Structure prediction request, 337 residues.
Amino acid sequence: MTTLINRQYYLDSRPEGLPTAANVPYRDVPVADPADGDVVLKNLYISLDPAIRGWMGDDPNYIEPIALGDPVRSTVIGRVVKSASPDFAVGDVAQVMGGWETYTTVPAAMCAKLDESAGIPLSLFLGVLGPTGLTAYFGLLEVGRPRPGETVLVSAAAGAVGSIVGQIAKMQGCRVVGMAGSDDKCAWLKNELGFDEVINYRTCGDYQAAIRAACPEGVDVYFDNVGGEILDAALMCLNKYARVAVCGWISTYNVPDAPGPKNLWQLVAESITVQGFVVIDYMDRFEEGIAQLAAWVLAGELQFREEVVDGLDDILPTFLRLFDGSNRGKLVVRIPE
Ligand SMILES: NC(=O)c1ccc[n+]([C@@H]2O[C@H](COP(=O)([O-])OP(=O)(O)OC[C@H]3O[C@@H](n4cnc5c(N)ncnc54)[C@H](OP(=O)(O)O)[C@@H]3O)[C@@H](O)[C@H]2O)c1
Prediction:
């Protein structure tokens, strides 16, 4: 029987700034037979998420840093090619925290089985029907708590999470303003997703002035995907009792010693609530969230964009596109079967 060879992109050193090929080289290793209770997955889709950059560092985070020498960690969807578990047969499809590699070996107990029979493209379980959609759903509704008639401001609004946040906010009867990094993205938000107003933060000049102009009645909910100067500007535009849902701070991930926000006094001045969250806080409600997201997608009420890039060879440069804004929606690597 031929030995399976696993190509792995692994963390050799912790990046300072943007990760390089020296930080994340690859190696080819044989795939061992699974130990009792384990399965071997041939990965089909690898999710690329900004959070992975955080796990490459060793600052405290919501999960352990990636250990040096380990494959870069990502959520993957793969087909079982070897099983030493009664719960998974060869041919089953599973979703699990795996790595930037062709084969992932994990305990079956950590895997969620996916049903291919419904005909839903598997990559959607990494995007709108997976962690991305759930982040938008719970982050907006449970942390942002928007009420009809309120103004919701979203940053990285044309991204995987942000584009869903804005559409759910519209469904709540809110006025929705999105910030994104190109005219093309802004046009998509306004013309196709129904955002009320958009700001191209790369060309708008003064952020505060641009937010005030786009939100003449102030901001009640700020869904923060970026942190940095945009957060500071948004803080100055918040209404009394506004809520800030802190989802991510992508503008700081590749900036060692990035300065913190300066305008926190506004929390006192306007009795503002700021709450960070991670999607796994809502793990016990994922079923509810996925059912609602799927119902909206099926009804044509929720649009999404995903960009599927073929092959593992360019996974690092593909990942880096999250940080220059060239991705169009949820970024996924596909490894053809
Ligand atoms: N809390 C959670 O559980 C959770 C879960 C998933 C994601 N997140 C966070 O949500 C945010 C969005 O993630 P995503 O997966 O949806 O990625 P994404 O928005 O699809 O892609 C990242 C986008 O961020 C924007 N961006 C990159 N660098 C920026 C900078 N310096 N300043 C402003 N914008 C910048 C770019 O869009 P532009 O062209 O508009 O600049 C880029 O396309 C990230 O902060 C991520 O860490 C949090």
